[in-house]
Amino acid sequence: MPRAVVFDLDGTLVDSALDIANAVNHALERAALPALPLERVKSFVGDGARTLLARASGLAEADARFEPLFADFFEYYNAHATAFTRPLPGATEALEALEPRLPLALATNKLRSSTEAVLSALELARYFRVIVAGGDAPRPKPSAEPLVYVARELGVQTAELVMVGDGPQDVLSGRAAGARSVAVRGGMASDERLLAAEPDAVLDSLAELPALIERWSTKSVA
Question: What are the percentages of helix, strand and coil residues in the chain, rounded to 5?
C-alpha cells in the first residue's frame, strides 16, 4: 500500500525550462560559446546542474573553462530562478489533495540552494515533509539513494513509496528502490525517453495523480 509520494521538481511540479535555459545561455555567451534553443537545453536537464552545463557547453568538467562557466550559470540562475517559473497545471491541486492523506517528499537533482529558491518563491515547501536535493544523497537519481533517504526519514519502506516525475531518471530511481513509478508527460524529457524507462503508470497531468493513488491504495487494501 502506498505510504508516501515523492515528487521530482523541474518539469514535474514546475515549468522552469525558460529560466534554466536563460541561465545556461547567459553562461555560454559569457564564455564565448554559442547559445542553445530552449528544446535543446530541456533535453539536457535532469541529471544536475554540472551535467547540464557539461552537455550544453561540450566541455569536460576537468576543463579549466568549466568552473567559471558553472559559476556564471549558478549565480545568474539563483538570482532569476523564478522570473518565468510557475507551477505546472494540476500540480498545486494534486499537492493539496494528497498532503492531508499521505506524507509528501521531494527528490530532485537540482542543487539545494536553487531548489529552496524555487520552493520559497512559489510557496511550495510547506507541502513536503522531506526534501532531498542534489548533493544530499551519496548518488543522485537514477540511483535509489535519494528514495532510500526519503524512506529512512519518513520511517517507511522504499517499496511503499510512489516516485512521480517527468524524466527517465525518476522512473529508474523508483525501480532501483523497489518503488512504484509514475511518469508525467509534457515535462523536460521527450515521450520517447520517458516511456522507454517503463514507468508503472503514465499521466498527462498531475491532476490525475490523486485518483491513481486512491486506486492503488484501494487495490492494496483489497
Answer: 50, 15, 35
Q: Closest by alpha carbon to 209, among 102, 81, 86?
A: 102
* Model pLDDT for residues 85-142, shown as the tens digit of each residue: 999 999 999 999 999 999 999 999 999 999 999 999 999 999 999 999 999 999 999 9
pTM passes above 0.85: yes
Give me the CATH number covering residue 149.
3.40.50.1000
Contacts of 36 (CB under 8 A, 6+ apart): 21, 24, 25, 28, 56
Domain residue limits at 181: 4-15+85-221
Query: Could you tell me if 73 and 90 lie in one domain?
Result: no
In the chain, how many domains are there?
A: 2
Show which residues are catalytic: 8
23 & 74 share domain = yes
| DSSP H or E segment with residue 59 | none
Residues β-bridged to residue 106? 7, 131
Whether residues 154 and 57 share a domain: the answer is: no
Q: Are residues 32 and 125 in the same domain?
A: no
CA proximity to 149, closest of 118, 95, 116, 109: 109
Q: Name the residue among 122, 121, 149 with its Cα closest to residue 133.
A: 149
Same domain, 194 and 133: yes
Cell numbers placing 142? 537514477
